[in-house]
Amino acid sequence: MKRKMKQLFTVIISALFAVQPAFAQKQNAEAISQKIEKLTEKLAGRIGVAAQEIGSDKKITINGDEQFVMASTYKVAIAAAVLDRVDRGELRLDQMVDVTLDMMMIGDAALNGRFVHPGLQLSIANLIEVMITESDNTATDISMGLAGGPAAVTKYLRRIGISDFRVDRPTGEIIGEFYGLPGPATHKLATEVFKARPELLKIQGDRNLDFEADPRDQATPLAMLQLLLAIDGGKATSSESRDFLINVMSRTRTGSGRLKGLLPKGTPVANKTGTIGGVANDVGYITLPDGRRFAIVVFTKSSTTSEADRDRAIAEVTRTLYDFYYLKSEDK
Questions:
Q1: What is the CATH classification number for the domain harbouring 247?
Q2: In whole angstroms, how large is the CA radius of gyration of the chain?
Q3: Distances in Å between the alpha carbon of 296 and those of 130, 208, 285?
Q4: Which interval of the chain is the signal sequence (predicted)?
C-alpha cells in the first residue's frame, strides 16, 4: 500500500513539474505584454502587436485581433502576390516594364522627381526593390497592376489561408482620400492641389479618425504575422521567391528608428515600414545572436504624439521582445 502511495505521489509531482514550464512561459508572455503596454502608453495612441519565434507556435499579442490601417506595410502582400505570379510562370523577375511620367506618384519616393524624362524601364525585380526598400508609391501601384489589382491581392491572401487582411486600393487612392483630393492622386494633381492649398501638407502627421475608421486596406496584427510566417515557411511563395523577398526587406532604408531603433548594432533585420497621418507601423523579421529568428508586427494608430515618439514606441516594443526571446534561450 505504501509503495502504491509513493508511486502515486511521484506521478503527481512529475505532472506538476511538467506543467510548470508552460505555466511560467504563459506568465512571462503576459508580463511582457503588460510591460510593452506600459512602455508605449504615452508614446503612441493605440498599439497592436503580434510576434512569434520562427519554429514555435507560441505568440505574444496586444490587440492582435483589432483592425489597423496598414499604410505601406501592405506592400509586403503586394510583393508576395507578384512573386506568386512569378512562381506560376506568368511573370519573370527580369521582365522589363515601362514606367511613364504619368505613372509617377507623390510620396517619399525613389522614382518620382528623380526621373523626369521619358524612356524609363525597370525590371519587376527592381520595381519590388524600390517598393520595399524606399517605399516607392510609383513602383507600388505598378506592382499592384502586375499582381492583377487590389482584388487579386486579397484573393491571393485568402487562397493561402489569411483573412482579416484587406487590400482594396492603390496608393494613389489612399493618399487622395487621406488628403481629401478630388479623385485618385496623381503627381500632377497633387502638385497643383498642394501649391493651391499648402496647409494640406501640415496634416501629414496628424491623425485622421475618419480615415482610420474606413475598413479598407486594414489588417489585424495577427493576420500580418500570419503572412510573414507564410512567406518564411514557403507557404506564400516558392523558396526562391521567399529568399528574394526577405533579402529585399533586409535592405529597407526607411524607419531606422522603428524596429531597428534600439536593437544592438549589426542585428540583422528584414522589414517594411508604413506611415500615414497618426499611423506608424513596422513589420518584419529579426535575427537573434544565436541565429534564431522571430517575426514581429507593430501597428499604431490615432497618435497625437510626435513622429519621434511613435518611432520610439515601436523601438521599445521590438527591444522588449528581442530581450524576451534571447533571454528565453539562455534559460534553457
A1: 3.40.710.10
A2: 22
A3: 22, 25, 6
A4: 1-24
